[in-house]
Amino acid sequence: MSASTAPRSHSAPPARVPRHLRRELAVLGSVLTDLSAGRSTAVTVIGATGFGQDALTRWTSRTAEARGLRVLSARGTPYESGLRYGVVTQLLHPLTGPGADLPAAPPHEGRRDCPPGLTEVLRTARGRPTLVVVEDAQWLDEESLRWLHLLIRRAAAAPLAVLAGGCGVTVSGPDWREVTASPPAAVGMRELVLDRMARTDVADVVRDTCGVPGADAFLSAAHHASTGNPAVLGDTMRRFARRGHAPDESGVPELRTIGAAVLGDHVERGLRGLPAETVALLRALAVCGDLLDFPLVCGLAGLRHLGGARLRSAVEATGFVTTGTSGPRIEAQVRPRVLEEMSHRDRAELHARAAELAHRAAADDRAVAALLLGAGPVGAPWAAQVLRRAAGAARREGDHTRSIACLSRAVCETPDPAHRAELTFELAAAELVTAPEAGRRRLGALVRGPGIAPGLRVRALALALADGEADTLRRAAAEALPTVTGPERDDLIALFWAAEPAGRERTELMVPEVPALPDLPASPAQAGQRAWQLAVRGERLPVVRRLARAALAAPAGGALVLPRLAACRALFLTEDYEEAEAGLGTLLAALDHRDMGVALPRVLATRAELNLRRGLLAVAERDIGAAERSLKPSGRHPATMPQLRAVRVLVDLERGHAREARSLALEPVPRAAQDSAYWPHLLFARALAHAFAGEARAAAGLMKECGRQLLSRHHLNPALLPWRSCAARLLRRTGGGAEAERLSHAERRLAREWGTPGALGWAELNAVPDDGAGRLAGIRDAVRLLRNGPASPWFVRALAELAAAEAAQGGDRRTALAAVDELSVLTATHPHSPMAARTRLLAQRLEPAPRTPAAPCPLWAALTASEAATAVLAAHGHSNSRIAELLSVSRRTVELRLSRAYSKLRISGRQELRALVRARERKLNDAGRTGL
């Protein structure tokens, strides 16, 4: 007899049975009591692997021996499940072996009506009550199962108890649980079904193993790590206790590590002892059990011909699955272990067959795509379509890693070159977010590659440029021009000039030569780029407006981002802010439905710059914050960084966060960022940060470097960046009066040539002398010009200059008070900003003298600054929602402020409020004609 089939010695100490099996122990104890009293019983202990049935059968055997009962025991094994009477041979060994009660004789087949040894067992039981114990009964051979069944049928003739324990992991062959089918009335029948451990049972095991109660978090982690399996939990806790850890929250990470190792070992050992059919079913469940109904999973495993109930019972008995309303499900932490020993080829084939089944069952695209990612190419058209849709869903959810995986797999599934190129473009768009270098290489290959479909080359180039890549792809666009015609050629030319602004200091010889943009192009993309070219040079303002509007009139859905963005920025310089805002809003909405998410930070930063120019600091803060959140600093092209940083520094300075602005402005930047078209903007922001800190000399130097960079690009328009006037102010403080006058004169000349009130008003303001009779008149002229535009930071500063000049140089005190009153409204929403602080100082200087309200309504002075600001916005036609957005307050706050304002002004609604505000503004304008 082999060692595996030899009967176990009963001299070992009693097996320790988990505390949660107390009920089962009581039942088995009563069975032994009945046996001692001469009453026969048949008991089955059923549970999944590791649930404790072996511990119960061994405890019963040892307890029976201690009570003087005869014990015949055997254990089924998978290797002997095909051996006839294999278990019977083990049971009869104590009766037929050396020193046994019966003469030694090997069991024979016997006649069908008299199996071997059955009569001998019944005879000996009459002389001494006998317990027959069979462990791992699921491996019973058919003859041994019939033998036990007949023994129970005859157990009424002798004091005999039969205890069989096991699980139902077999999917074919005899069902061992039939051993107790139809016992005689005189034989008692008990069935014990073991289940997973409850959380309270886990607490008992933790306390018994560690000696102290476990913390709640620890108990939850232990229950999850063991999946409620007593064997896994016991082994895990013994290892945990041996390492000297305490069962508290600090021990949870170590517990999870140990639990994962123990569970993996348990699954590995368990799989070795399972039938091939059960293993195949478990693997099918691990791949798609959460996705397909159980009958389909059985079909995937090749077991559709077997009964569903038997298959369900088999996998549940392994202890690796849980049972819900939808059928068996494998625990997530067990799935990798179940598939671990499969070859790569077999695993890929299983995933491919599961994906096809799931697709036929109309499963969710993302779930089918997950199966396809584990399979090899299936060669079916539906596979690429499913993967593409799943990639789109992942991109919308922000899961770019999964989107890349799906698209990479879709490219492998597509034999058609045109379709593969389209998928490659989508893959590159996804890679630009998380693997930008790979995305840029793919886009470059699409731009240069032969046979690319019309329009795809342009989209690839536009995407790469939106990411910031210009140097290499600019040459690629030039090389592609001779091979394209029509609208695609026009778009490539527009993108060429968008990639490399005219007149940069570093130039390259282009072969073939790229034609310049037409003076009045018909193409919307070329119109937008041409508008920007003229705008930055400060030339032909009416033409710039016309071209920019033509570019924005085209549908945004298929428009190129950079030329359309250039048209919006051109409208900044023409001071058509509302049209620019509408264009940016349309562009942002279009980005949500295209593969141009990489352009989102740039468009948001541009809108933040627009709102900063309009004095809407709260909205500018919101936009630049959104731009920063949408930008992943690691891997994003350095060319995109200067714009965001410049706008953030300027917003922080205006809001009074000078320390944060200075810190950000002084952070080092990559060398490649200095080639960006926005590098002069960052230099300008750095200069202002130094100026706010009182470092006039350093600020002047940065302003002049900013100007040098702009001039090298032929960006002459002072509306773009008023570097000359700002440098002139700084130079006057540091003794550079002559240079300051030269710069001021140049800016006034260029501003007059351009013709917008904002640029001209700021140039005039900074050209006024520091003292003398002409200073007050110059400031009044500048304010009059700037008042025609929005309440920009330049207008606020001009208003403060006016108030100070009127108060200090014998001007009109009433005009000074009116200016301070207006400043209080404009700075009310940012009380910590530098201009708010200056407004308070001006108010203190003017307070001692009698004050006459500037508004025709004497009750206006009763409004608080916040109420006045809200009332002015309401009078100008803004809705409550828009006012709340502009002032960064809730809509309810706006309603309360307006209600208080109506009460104080003794009016009933917006119509009267609008009349009061208009009268007040006319009063201010009249004062301006005589003193403003």
How would you characterize the overall build of this protein?
A hairpin with a 2-residue loop joins β6 and β7 (327-330). With 932 residues, this protein is mostly helical. 61% of the residues lie in helices and 4% in strands.
Distance between the termini: 116 Å
Low-confidence stretches: 1-15, 99-111, 501-507, 849-856, 927-932
Query: Total number of helical segments?
Result: 43
Q: Gyration radius, to the nearest Å?
A: 43 Å
Q: If you average the pLDDT, what whole number results?
A: 81
Strand order of the largest sheet: 2-3-4-1-5
Number of distinct beta strands: 7
- What percentage of amino acids are in beta strands? under 5%
The helix content is 55-70%
Report the oligomer: single chain
Class per helix and strand makeup:
mainly alpha
Largest sheet: 5 strands, parallel
Identify the overall geometry: elongated
What tags apply to this protein structure?
43 helices, five-stranded parallel β-sheet, 932 residues, disordered N terminus, two-stranded antiparallel ribbon, 7 strands, single chain, mainly alpha
